[in-house]
TrEMBL record:
<feature type="region of interest" description="Disordered">
    <location>
        <begin position="92"/>
        <end position="112"/>
    </location>
</feature>
<dbReference type="GO" id="GO:0015935">
    <property type="term" value="C:small ribosomal subunit"/>
</dbReference>
<keyword id="KW-0699">rRNA-binding</keyword>
<protein>
    <recommendedName>
        <fullName>Small ribosomal subunit protein uS13</fullName>
    </recommendedName>
</protein>
<dbReference type="GO" id="GO:0005829">
    <property type="term" value="C:cytosol"/>
</dbReference>
<dbReference type="GO" id="GO:0006412">
    <property type="term" value="P:translation"/>
</dbReference>
<dbReference type="Pfam" id="PF00416">
    <property type="entry name" value="Ribosomal_S13"/>
</dbReference>
<dbReference type="InterPro" id="IPR018269">
    <property type="entry name" value="Ribosomal_uS13_CS"/>
</dbReference>
<feature type="compositionally biased region" description="Basic residues">
    <location>
        <begin position="101"/>
        <end position="112"/>
    </location>
</feature>
<dbReference type="InterPro" id="IPR001892">
    <property type="entry name" value="Ribosomal_uS13"/>
</dbReference>
<dbReference type="InterPro" id="IPR019980">
    <property type="entry name" value="Ribosomal_uS13_bac-type"/>
</dbReference>
<dbReference type="InterPro" id="IPR010979">
    <property type="entry name" value="Ribosomal_uS13-like_H2TH"/>
</dbReference>
<keyword id="KW-0694">RNA-binding</keyword>
<keyword id="KW-0689">Ribosomal protein</keyword>
<comment type="similarity">
    <text>Belongs to the universal ribosomal protein uS13 family.</text>
</comment>
<dbReference type="GO" id="GO:0000049">
    <property type="term" value="F:tRNA binding"/>
</dbReference>
<dbReference type="InterPro" id="IPR027437">
    <property type="entry name" value="Rbsml_uS13_C"/>
</dbReference>
Length: 134
């Protein structure tokens, strides 16, 4: 497993696939990185020489924003949206979808487990709500 910028990339996979394990590098960016570093994308990551690894690291550091820098930038953007009180910022603060998805029936991942609101009729249903809802 070669270590690139503090991240272990899988060595048994082709380089263009193993680069995707780095936060901020996807399909297109991985191909672009291989092209700029003059590396063969179909070569296994374990078969890279030290010189090739150094070229890869220098290209990633100089030309791309990845890992910690990218995470900080994204979180700063979200904090900025929240602080200015924009619609998207309010949606982030409320943990609701920000990109226009419907929330009447879906968005369970973002909203969390269902919570019953209002009257629950029937003794069995009431005891189930008390046990699960608290």
């Amino acid at each position: 497993m070669p270590r690139v910028l503090g991240i272990d990339i899988p060595g048994r996979k082709k380089l263009e696939y193993s680069l995707r394990y780095i936060y901020g590098i996807g399909h297109t960016t991985a191909k672009e990185v291989c092209e700029k570093a003059k590396l063969d994308p179909s070569k296994k990551a374990d078969d890279m020489t030290d010189d090739e690894i150094q070229r890869l690291i220098s290209v990633l550091q100089n030309d791309f924003r990845i890992e910690g820098d990218l995470r900080r930038e994204v979180s700063a953007n979200v904090r900025r949206l929240i602080s200015i009180g924009s619609y998207r910022g309010r949606r982030h603060r409320a943990s609701l979808p920000c990109r226009g998805q419907r929330t009447k029936t879906n968005a369970r991942t973002r909203k969390g487990a269902k919570r019953t609101v209002g009257i629950v009729r029937g003794k069995e249903a009431r005891s189930a709500v008390k046990a699960g809802g608290k």
